[in-house]
Specification:
It is built from nine helices and twelve strands. It is an alpha/beta fold. The chain binds zinc ion. Zinc ion (ZN) binds next to helix 1. One of its GO terms (biological process) is pyrroloquinoline quinone biosynthetic process.
Length: 300
Amino acid sequence: MRVRVLGTAAGGGVPQWNCACPGCSGARAHPGWRRRHASLAVQAAEGRWYLVNATPDLGEQVEECPELHPGPEPRRTPLAGVILTDAELDHTLGIARLREADGIEIVATAPVRNALLTGLHLGEVLTPYARLDWRPLDPGDRPLAEDSPLAIGAVPVSAKRPRYAAGLDAADDDAPDDDAWVVALRLTDRTTGRSLLYAPALATWPDAFQRAAESADHVIVDGTFWSDDEPSPAASARAPPPPWGICRSTDPAARRGGSPHSKRAPCTPTSTTPTPSTTRPRPSTRCCGNWASRWPQTGW
Ligand SMILES: [Zn+2]
């Protein structure tokens, strides 16, 4: 299984365009601290890759990953499609950047597809440019592509809708509170049996996710805040209280172990999250002065 991590940041990235907190300012001064939006590239077969989520950074992420570069023919691309773990803007806006393709294959759960088609009107906007080929994503493992040793399956983790989809009617095959609004993605190499679990948006730690983590060889999991009230002191009364939609890094549930051989790596850090590439001390809870604008913007 070949996977490239294209980004690890939560909504806005690091630095966020309208933020001058110490984390974002530090990232501007030290390019090595910058973090693009959370995304993976997964190799389905030789010369055939899928993105896991399509972020606003998609163009830059493709350029920074040689495996995704086009060639040798002028318009031949190894990028075969996009797998979506949810319908959040930070994970879907990049689809529009693929409109130069003849067709865009999108693998998504029923509620996510419904949100993109009836909430964002993605079909009406993009089909004049490119064909949208939809494939279902559900709990049953399915081959990622016809010639691929990889299988993908969804582990439902949350019924949290994006804000733009709050008032949408459910699709015919979609229960109103369907917890497939947000899923973790299970990738299994059918030749080796090894697996990766990717959960870039994890508000809680459901039992089903724990079981999936226990059976995975590697888990990349959402974990951002140090404490529930971390953004609050700087956020003013405009920001509502938790739940954030992101697990705390210090949450005992988020630290529960998987199988003895499993490895876990953090995902979706914000500008206040220390990362291995930085030597910054643990951030102050008042670090980010723009949480009031940041939090409503991302819904996290
Ligand atoms: Zn910031």
